[in-house]
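Give me the fold.
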Amino acid sequence: MEADHLDIWGSEAAYAAAFDEFADGIDPAGFLVCGVDDPGAARLASRQRAAGRRVVTIGEDAGADLRATGLRTAGTGTTFDVERRDGAVLGTVALRIPGRHYVVDALAALATGLELGHDFTALARGLGSFTGTGRRMEPKGEAGGVRVLDSYAHHPSEIRGDLEAARAVAGDGRVVVAFQPHLVSRTRIFGRAMGEALGAADEVVVLDVYLAREDADPAVTGAVVADAVPLAEGRVRYLPDRADVVPTLLGLARPGDVVLTLGAGDVTALAPELLALLAEGAAAGG
C-alpha cells in the first residue's frame, strides 16, 4: 500500500485513509484479507484488527496467517508451498504466470476461499488453471527467437516486480525494456524511482510521458526517468520520438532475449509492430 494517484488524493496520508474508509465498510460478519510483506498494508491490518475487524494476513512474512514458502520459478511459472501460521503445511500451488507479486495475489485469493470454507486442493487446482490476464506480463508472441511480453506496470514497485519476473522468463537471455511513463504528476513524483527500478533490465528504452488527464510540462519528460536509470552509458536511451522506438528495439533484441513493453499508456501497441519486423527478419534469414 504505497502512495500513488496523488494527483487525485493530494497526499500520502489521504491515500492511506481511503483504504481504511473502504475497510470500515466491510460487513461486521465479514473479514479483510491483507498482505503484510508491505509496511503500509501491514499498518492497515494492525489498525483494522485494533478496530475489531477480523483480518486474515498473507505474505512471505513469518508472522502471516497464510504464508508462501519455498518459491521456485521456472520460465513462465511459479511454484510455492502454503503454510499456516501454526506451521501446518497445506500443500503446493503451481501458477502458470511468473512473478513474486502474483504469488501474493494468489495467496489472497486462496485465503479468501479457505475462509469461505472451500477445500485447499480445489482452490489450488483453480489457481493452477489461471493463465493470466491482459496487460499483466502478457505474452504477445515470439519471433526470431525473441519473446515479447507486455505489462501495465507503471509504479516503481510494479516495475521491479515485473522485471524480476521477466528475468526468470529470460533465463540465460537478456531483458530489454521499453518503458512509457504514465502521467506528468506521477513522473514528477516517482520518476527517479521508476528509473532506479528499470536498472534491473539489461537494455532500457524510455519513451516520453503518456499524457492523460493532465497538461504537458516541459520540465517533466521521459528524460527524468532515463537519467535515473543506473546502467552503463549506451544501455539507456530516451526516445521522445515514438517512431524511433521499434527500430531501436529491433536493433537491440537478440535470439534468447525477452522484450518487455511496460507502462499504462499506449506502449502496448509496440509489441505487434516489433513482432512483425522480427518475423520478417527471421524469414529473410537476418
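The mean pLDDT is 95.
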